[in-house]
Recover the amino acids of this structure.
C-alpha cells in the first residue's frame, strides 16, 4: 500500500476544507470500497479525511413527512429502521439484498452511493481501463463482459454501477444533501460518455452530509434482484418498483433498474405506459419492450436483455396481484 497522510476532523467545514486543500484527498467512512481499491493500487489517495466523527449518523423524520438520512448511517441501521421498513420498504429490501451482514454494519449511506464500479478490468491494474487511466482503452469491450452494461454505455466504458441502495433511492426520488447544495439523486451519477473516470457530479471536496426521502407514497414496493448466488453478489439485473393501483387501474408507477448501466437507470416513458391502465400481462410486456429499447449487449452480457424483460414483467405481476 502506498503511503498517505490522515486526519480525523470533527466538523463538516473542517472536513470539506481538508479535502479541498490537500491534493488527491479522499473521504473515508466505512472504507468497505476505498480500502479494497487502495490495496489493489487502483485508488491512490495522498490524504485520507476520516469523516466518522462528523455529526451525520441520525435518521430524522421531518415535519413535512420527509425522512433525512445522515451520510454516516450504516446500511444495517437504515435497513432495520421501523419507519423505513414501513413506508420505504423498497429501500430496506434493496439494502438487505446487498453484501453481507458484516459489510452492512460498516458501510455508510454516502459511501454506498459513491461506490466505484466492480469491473474486472477496472480493478486489475495490468489491464487497460479508461475509468482508471483515461485514454488507455477499455478491454471489457471485446473481452469478458458478463457483468457489464446494456444501457447507456459508450465506446469508452461499459461498466455498471454496483449499488442496490442507489437503485431504490432513485425510485423513491431521493435528494442528496451536500455541504454546498441539494442534488436530485437522478442527477448525482453520470453516464460514461468520453470521460468515464468521472463517476458523479460532485465537485472536488464536496461532501455528502445526508440523503432526504420525500414523504412516502402509498404503494406496493418491491425490489427484485437477480444474481449468480443468493448472497454477497452484485446484481446481474435488479428492479425497484413502486406501484399504486386503485379501482383496477394503475395510478402511479416508478421503476428503477440496477446492474444494467453506468448509473442507476430509470425510464420515465415506461412508467407512463402503465399509468391509467388495468394490469395485464400484455401491458407488462409492452412496458418491458420499452425499457430495453436501445439496449445492446457486448457478447458475454447479451443474456441481460431478455433477463431484464423477464424480471420486470415478474416484478410488475407481483406488485399488482390482488
Amino acid at each position: 500500500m502506498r503511503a498517505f497522510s490522515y486526519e480525523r476532523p470533527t466538523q463538516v467545514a473542517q472536513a470539506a476544507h481538508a479535502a479541498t486543500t490537500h491534493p488527491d484527498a479522499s473521504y473515508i467512512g466505512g472504507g468497505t470500497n476505498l480500502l479494497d481499491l487502495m490495496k489493489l493500487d487502483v485508488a491512490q489517495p495522498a490524504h485520507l479525511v476520516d469523516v466518522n466523527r462528523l455529526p451525520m449518523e441520525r435518521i430524522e423524520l421531518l415535519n413535512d413527512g420527509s425522512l433525512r438520512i445522515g451520510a454516516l448511517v450504516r446500511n444495517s441501521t437504515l435497513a432495520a429502521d421501523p419507519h423505513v421498513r414501513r413506508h420505504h420498504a423498497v429501500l430496506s429490501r434493496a439494502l438487505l439484498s446487498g453484501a453481507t451482514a458484516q459489510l452492512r454494519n460498516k458501510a455508510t449511506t454516502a459511501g454506498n452511493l459513491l461506490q466505484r464500479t466492480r469491473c474486472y478490468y477496472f480493478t486489475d491494474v495490468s489491464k487497460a481501463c479508461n475509468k482508471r487511466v483515461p485514454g488507455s482503452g477499455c478491454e471489457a469491450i471485446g473481452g469478458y463482459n458478463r457483468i457489464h452494461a446494456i444501457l447507456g454505455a459508450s465506446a469508452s466504458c461499459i461498466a455498471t454501477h454496483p449499488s442496490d441502495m442507489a437503485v431504490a433511492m432513485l425510485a423513491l426520488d431521493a435528494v442528496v444533501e451536500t455541504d454546498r447544495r441539494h442534488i436530485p439523486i437522478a442527477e448525482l451519477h453520470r453516464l460514461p460518455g468520453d470521460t468515464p473516470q468521472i463517476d458523479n457530479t460532485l465537485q472536488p471536496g464536496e461532501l455528502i452530509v445526508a440523503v432526504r426521502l420525500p414523504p412516502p407514497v402509498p404503494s406496493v414496493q418491491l425490489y427484485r434482484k437477480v444474481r449468480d448466488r443468493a448472497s454477497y453478489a452484485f446484481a446481474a439485473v435488479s428492479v425497484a418498483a413502486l406501484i399504486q393501483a386503485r379501482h383496477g387501474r394503475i395510478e402511479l408507477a416508478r421503476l428503477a433498474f440496477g446492474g444494467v448501466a453506468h448509473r442507476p437507470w430509470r425510464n420515465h416513458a415506461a412508467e407512463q405506459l402503465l399509468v391509467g391502465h388495468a394490469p395485464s400481462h400484455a401491458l407488462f410486456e409492452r412496458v418491458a419492450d420499452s425499457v430495453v429499447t436501445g439496449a445492446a449487449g457486448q457478447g458475454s452480457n447479451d443474456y441481460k436483455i431478455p433477463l431484464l424483460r423477464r424480471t420486470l414483467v415478474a416484478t410488475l405481476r407481483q406488485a399488482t396481484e390482488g
Summary: Residues 42 and 125 are 7 Å apart (CA to CA). Residues 220-320 form a domain with the Enolase-like; domain 1 fold (CATH 3.30.390.50).
